[in-house]
Structures
1.
Amino acid sequence: MTMRIVVGVDGSDHGNAALRWAVSEAEFHKGEILAVFAWQLPLIAVPGAFDRDEMERLCRAFVEGVVARVVTTTSVPITTLVAEGDVSASLIEAAKTADMLVLGSRGRGGFAGLKLGSVSQECAQHAACPVVIVK
C-alpha cells in the first residue's frame, strides 16, 4: 500500500519547508503527495465582482508554480488540488483518507508573534490522520 501524504501549500517559507519535508518523507516511504491550496472568494456585495473560473485558474497556476519551484527533482508522484473554501476545512477534508497531513507552522497570516498558525492548529485538532507541523 502506498503512503499518501497531504501537504498544505501556500507559498510561505514555512509552507515551502513543509512541502520539502513531505517530499522527503514520501521518497523514504515510496509514497505519493497531494499538494493542496485552498482559497475563498472575498465577501463582497457586488455581484460578478470576481470571476470564479479565473480565480480557479490563477490558484491552479499558483500551486503548480510553488511545487515546481520548491521541488526541483523527485521520483515521488505529486498531484495538486485547488480547493474552494475554508483553508482548515479543505485540508482536513483532503486528508480524510491520507496517512499524514503536513503543514507549515505558520502561513501567510499577519501575526508574526504566533508560534503556531490558526490553520495548523485547527488541522492538528481535527484531522483524521497524524499531522506533522514543520517550522
Note: The first helix runs from residue 13 to 29.
2.
Amino acid sequence: MTAEYTVLGISRLDDHVLLADAGLAMAMVAAGAERLVDLRGETKPPRLPVPVDHFPIMDLEPGQDELIMAAGRHVRSLTGAGTAVGLYCQAGLSRTSTVAIAYLLLGGTSLQAACDLVREVRPQAMPALELWHSLESIAAGLARPVT
C-alpha cells in the first residue's frame, strides 16, 4: 500500500485525474499519474519515463472545439480503463481547466457544475475566453438530443 501525499501545485480532480503545470509533470507521476497529457501548443512534450500524449491547444485561439473534445475524450477513455492521468499545460490554468471541464462534460456534468468543480479543486484555474466559448459550444452540442 502506498501512502497518499499532497504536492503543492497539484490538484486532484477525481480519483483518476490530476491537474498541474508543466513544471510539475513528474511530480504528478510521483503522486500516482500513470500517463500524462500535455496540452501545450507552443512546444512538444518532453521525453519522460512515462507515456505523454500531446494535444496542442493554443491558449488564446478560438475554434478549437474538436481538439478540446478529442483531449477530453482521450482523458475519459484512459480513466475509464482505470488509468490515472496527469493533465497539464504551461501554467496549469487555462488549457488544463478547459480539458478538465470537457472531461467532466463528457461524463454528464453540466457546464456550470463542471466549471465549479474545477474551480473548487484548483481555484486559480479558468479557461481563457476563447476556450470558454469552445466549452459553451461543446456543452450545447452534448445537450442536443440525438435524432
Note: The radius of gyration is 14 Å.
